[in-house]
Write a structure and sequence with these properties.
- By secondary structure, this protein is of the alpha/beta class.
- The chain folds into 2 domains: 195 residues, Quinone Oxidoreductase, Chain A, domain 1; 147 residues, NAD(P)-binding Rossmann-like Domain (Rossmann fold, 3-Layer(aba) Sandwich).
- It is built from 13 helices and 17 strands.
Length: 374
């Protein structure tokens, strides 16, 4: 990606590895909402933190990756403690923490790191070894990158969902909070606002975790159809309803209360005030889709939060410890996942511009690059 709206194929020399690095041959790499923002020139990430930055072009995007190890420089161990060998199929973490800041040294989630490097984001391709993103045939993994083995029975089309599924850790915290504020310890009602790939993973996680009522809100009919197929008990099209109708229907669907947990996965800030209306008194809103800074929205601290005892969880990314459980969750529930309806499009690297356009259109869910395709 050379700039906003400017993407092309380039060739780089085969990279040499430094100690602790791994060369990965890509099998699949997903198109994430963050990549769409970068393509549109919306590049302010981690706003308000020590590692706030604007993404610099050029870069090779792609941080939702599954591939096969091709080369290892020295001894590198996966999350299970075993050495990584050529031929191992792995999912690499999307981020590389520094290991020396206060957050790293005190066991905080690695997205808190003050010197975080992100594949396909902060790591550009202007300087060698260039290949720091998954939209490529090969990718360099820096020393210290968490690596996770893919179960043999798990196909690449499922393994490529690992990173966005790892972002759903906010649901785990939200369930505990909602239970402590007058809710049930299981069978919670959950609403997902924005049913793109991230919303899909939140809906899947809620469904597999045994939620009760499950609501999906989006504007694309094909996505709402898939939500219903995956267990949504109510789907709402924002182009066919207004806000007051959506609030009324969610409350009606949840016994007049509102959803116990609302996950905002839209990727635009304007949906947060709506989520605060959809959640019940004492419920929890998980803000998981605002990775890029697109500006503020009006929220009333008294009426929206305090008077209703609502908690809001801001999710700045996945946690490293969520990868292995996400892979296990996918493997154990493979027979319940209609992968042909989830991974809807596969593109060759030559067709990147088309892939980005399709990823934002009706009829698409998860769009991936397959570097083997011609």
């Amino acid at each position: 990606m050379r700039g906003p709206g400017d993407i092309a194929v380039a060739e780089f020399p085969r990279p040499g590895l430094r100690p602790g690095e791994v060369l990965l041959r890509l099998r699949l790499s997903g198109v994430c909402g963050t990549d769409k923002h970068t393509y549109r020139g919306e590049t302010l990430q981690y706003a308000g933190t020590a590692h706030e930055r604007r993404i610099a072009y050029p870069l090779v995007c792609g941080h939702e990756n599954v591939g096969v190890v091709e080369e290892v420089a020295g001894e590198v161990r996966a999350s299970d403690g075993r050495p990584v060998r050529p031929g191992d199929r792995v999912v690499p973490a999307a981020n590389v923490p520094c290991g020396r800041c206060a957050f790293c040294l005190n066991g905080a989630p690695y997205s808190f790191c003050e010197h975080l490097d992100d594949y396909g984001n902060s790591l550009g391709c202007a300087e060698p070894p260039h290949l720091f993103g998954g939209w490529a045939e090969q990718m360099v993994l820096l020393a210290g990158t968490p690596l996770f083995r893919v179960p043999d029975e798990l196909p690449d089309e499922a393994a490529v969902l690992t990173e966005p599924l790892a972002v759903t850790h906010g649901l785990d915290t939200a369930r505990l909070l909602a239970h402590g504020q007058g809710g049930s310890a299981f069978g919670e009602s959950v609403a997902v606002v924005g049913f793109g790939p991230l919303g899909l993973c939140h809906l899947l996680k809620a469904r597999l975790a045994g939620c009760g009522r499950l609501v999906a809100v989006d504007r694309l009919p094909s996505r709402l159809d898939l939500a219903a197929e995956l267990g949504a008990t109510l789907t709402l099209n924002v182009d066919e309803t207004d806000l007051e109708e959506r609030v009324a229907r969610v409350r009606e669907h949840t016994g007049g209360l509102g959803a116990d947990v609302v996950a905002d996965c839209s990727g635009v800030p304007e949906t947060l005030p709506e989520c605060l209306r959809l959640v019940r008194h004492g419920g929890v809103v998980v803000e998981a889709g605002a990775f890029v800074d697109l500006g503020p929205v009006p929220v009333n601290p008294a009426a929206d939060l305090c008077a209703r005892n609502v908690a809001v969880l801001g999710i700045g990314g996945e946690t490293a410890r969520a990868y292995a459980p996400s892979l296990e969750l996918l493997a154990r529930n493979l027979d319940r996942l209609p992968l042909d309806r989830i991974v809807t499009h596969r593109f060759a690297l030559d067709d990147a511009a088309e892939a980005l356009a399709v990823a934002q259109a009706d009829g698409a869910m998860k769009v991936v690059f397959d570097p083997v395709l011609a």
